[in-house]
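[STRUCTURE TOKENS]
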Amino acid sequence: MYNKEQDYLEYKKFKINNLFSVFSQQEYIVDYVKQNLMLLMTSGSYAYGMESENSDLDMIGIFKDNFKMILGYNKIDQIEFKGFIQEQEINITIYSLSKALKLIIEQNPNMLELIFVDESDILYKTKDYEYIRSRRKEMLSKLSRHKFTGYAMSQMKRIKGHSKWMSKEQSGKFDKKPEMIDYCRIIEVDGKTHRDKSHLLSWSQCSFLTKETNTIYKVWVIGKFGEVLNFNGWTDEKNCTFYFEENISKYDKKFVGLLFFAKDEFDQSLKEYNSWKQWKDNRNIKRHELEKKYNFDTKHTSHLFRLMLGGLEILEKETYSVKRPEKDFLLDIRNGKYSYEWVIEKAEEFDKVVLPDAYEKSTLKHSVDKNLYVDIMIKLLKI
């Protein structure tokens, strides 16, 4: 009788059965993944050799799907768990072989880690996984230059945005949500101009508007003695526009001035405020402490350089070290040794000079032969 224990090449740190009890997906899905597990490994900071006392434990793996599952309605691409196990925050993602292999061949940086991970970080593996790993050099291509720098540049965009928000947050820019009234001015018929908010609010309580354009409105006082009839207000803050619910043409009215609304400026300020608010409400607390200390996200920045150095290694040496040899340099970045201006300048130099030069000199193929995917799937699924 087949004994799965005999297929273990390594089995350490914890029992696989206990681990799978944490997944919340349907029982038959979790059971299938467990029975067909090919790889489970440590990922993230621990796999990069950059862990700290505050690092979460990340794990990633592969399970073998089958031909019927790939073509049928019950396809399982991955299962995930995010939470705490014995007070340790843990993130686990286990991908199907069909999905993982496609992403590996497409040079997805996270997926390439699956076949280039340091042996010391593998928690569980089978002979089928060893077969894939033995062909890993065939799965590298010059496309990695674009995929790795694409991920890195998205990190840099995030770093720049967060740094800008941090500076504006500290200056009081986001102390309150932008209001339409703050972007208005009134010119009375006698030429007097008003921008003061209290003055504008007093006008909103004794007058009505009629629309001329999206940014210009006529201001009217209505009624024989200037009293307001059926007043409904000036603005609809939800839709960022002025609104009118009453037909004022039947009333006596007096034109008293023009209201100018800086709509584009208001829309931009509101968009920026909402983006900042979303970031603030969802930001990682530990990461934010680094941002407050150094005024930019040093952890994101260290990963930016990790990706660029990894892409460079693939182009120059045709291999990929998940556990980075530049660990000390990357930790220096995370610990704030280098200024924001320095890291941005160096990252742009990598993107525009260093990596393009390595790309031109690389002897790798421009892309991986897609038949490699078919060959491996046929062999492992025994089709």
